[in-house]
Design brief:
This protein has 17 helices and four strands. It is mainly alpha-helical. The N and C termini lie far apart (89 Å).
């Protein structure tokens, strides 16, 4: 069953029914949890863990001590934690030095996320989850985690009940089994891994990601509400700049990131925006209904910009913050370019997404962890001297060796031939030298 995001990506709506429902559950959760988590010291109150780190784990992750029982028990699996650590044992465990995430477990988690995407069609909500965890960043605040950003704080119910995050509990439900399976992956990494993987699996560009993000440890470290964009502010362009400039992003990055609206739908019962159903959404995939920005709303391409520019299909959604991309003179330069050139859009989007995913994060190790081996290189072309001869006669081995040595001396390579004809160039040089010698002699 597809789990679409409430209002695609960053946009929020105070009229969200899901936000209201989540808030009601949360208020009960706070009272219940305050009784369950009472302990001799404040540190002990954060020490519940569902299970100890697996014996086979190569190292202890900072996420081994699960510090979000509210979400884990009340919002997700409804299971009671099996272990309560004392304040003393929590202090001892937390003093162990370890990297935030394990590279091999990150790779395993990525493969499991791909399988979920194939069966649940949940690309949009996973993109939104990563964006909303990172999008609270404030570049004017230096202290971590007060500055916000990609730190896993969105797993706590106090932040989940923010209006902009309505419905994201469904994304956490999808990822919780993966977090249980790969305990040495931080929540912050898992959210960003899921977001980037969803883009790539929907046909989008490869995102140059790095991992090793450290999680916050308590709800008190969550950012205040109001840092994420709204869908229909009075001055859409000014609002977008106010929010994204606070993150340290520029106009090109604002427009490029907006292009991710090519994925997903908006449901009026959750966000207050969009139609209950259109000809593009009535048959799914996944649960039918809602209004999409594009016809193929699970395919990542540049249709979002094309469709906004054309304005020919009334069944496609255009929010005030979408329309302003073609109304504002600075935004319009990039929106027009992306509508015409998908390759440029993919390049700029990949760079902007990677930048967004790193905002506010604290990495351990500091340089981060890269789990991609990079694109495979094609087999090098063999050097065949005869290919560079304009004659029909087979060359001797001695001549081939001589040509090869001269070829390398002028910047060629045995594995990559020069683009021009080697012998033709030699003949031209000899002719020029002969002409100059003749002229000087005369």
């Amino acid at each position: 069953m597809e789990l679409p995001h409430t209002l695609s990506l960053f946009h929020s709506s105070s009229s969200s029914a899901a936000a209201t429902a989540t808030s009601m559950i949360a208020s009960t959760a706070v009272a219940t949890t305050s009784r369950l988590l009472r302990s001799p010291s404040p540190r002990a109150s954060l020490s519940l863990s569902r299970a100890p780190a697996p014996a086979h784990s190569p190292r202890l992750s900072s996420s081994c001590l699960r510090s979000s029982p509210l979400v884990s028990r009340l919002f997700l699996s409804q299971r009671r934690p099996s272990l309560h650590l004392s304040a003393t044992s929590y202090s001892a465990a937390s003093s162990l030095r370890c990297a935030a995430s394990d590279p091999e477990q990150l790779k395993g988690a990525r493969e499991d996320i791909k399988e979920i995407l194939k069966s649940k069609f949940c690309h949009p909500i996973l993109v939104r989850l990563g964006w909303h965890d990172a999008g609270t960043y404030n570049k004017d605040i230096e202290e971590w985690p007060k500055r916000g950003g990609a730190n896993g704080s969105l797993r706590f119910e106090i932040e989940l009940k923010h209006a902009a995050n309505a419905g994201l509990v469904n994304a956490l439900k999808l990822l919780e089994p993966i977090k249980d399976k790969y305990s040495n992956v931080s929540y912050a990494d898992l959210f960003q891994l899921a977001s980037a993987t969803a883009i790539e699996e929907a046909g989008g560009p490869k995102i140059p990601m790095k991992y090793g993000r450290v999680d916050v440890s308590s709800p008190e470290e969550c950012p205040e509400e109001g840092r994420l964009p709204d869908a229909g502010p009075p001055s859409p362009a000014d609002h977008l700049r106010q929010v994204f400039y606070r993150m340290g992003l520029n106009d090109k990055e604002i427009v490029a990131l907006s292009g991710a609206h090519t994925l997903g739908r908006s449901r009026p019962e959750r966000s207050g925006w969009g139609k209950p159903e259109t000809k593009h959404t009535k048959d799914g995939p996944g649960a039918p209904g809602g209004q999409s920005w594009t016809v193929q709303w699970l395919k990542f391409d540049n249709s979002y910009f094309k469709d906004i520019k054309a304005k020919k299909d009334e069944d496609l959604l255009i929010l005030p913050t979408d329309a302003t991309l073609f109304d504002d003179p600075s935004f319009k330069v990039y929106a027009e370019k992306y509508a015409e050139d998908q390759e440029t859009f993919f390049k700029d989007y990949a760079e902007a997404h990677a930048k967004l995913s790193n905002l506010g994060a604290k990495f351990d190790p500091p340089e981060g962890i890269v789990i991609d081996d990079g694109p495979s290189k094609p087999a090098p072309e063999k050097f065949v001297a005869a290919n560079y001869s304009s004659g029909k006669r087979e060359l001797s081995e001695a001549m081939k060796q001589k040509i090869r040595a001269e070829y390398e001396a002028i910047g060629g390579s045995p594995d990559k031939p020069l683009q021009s004809n080697y012998f033709l160039n030699i003949m031209i040089i000899i002719a020029v030298l002969a002409l100059l010698t003749s002229l000087l002699g005369n």
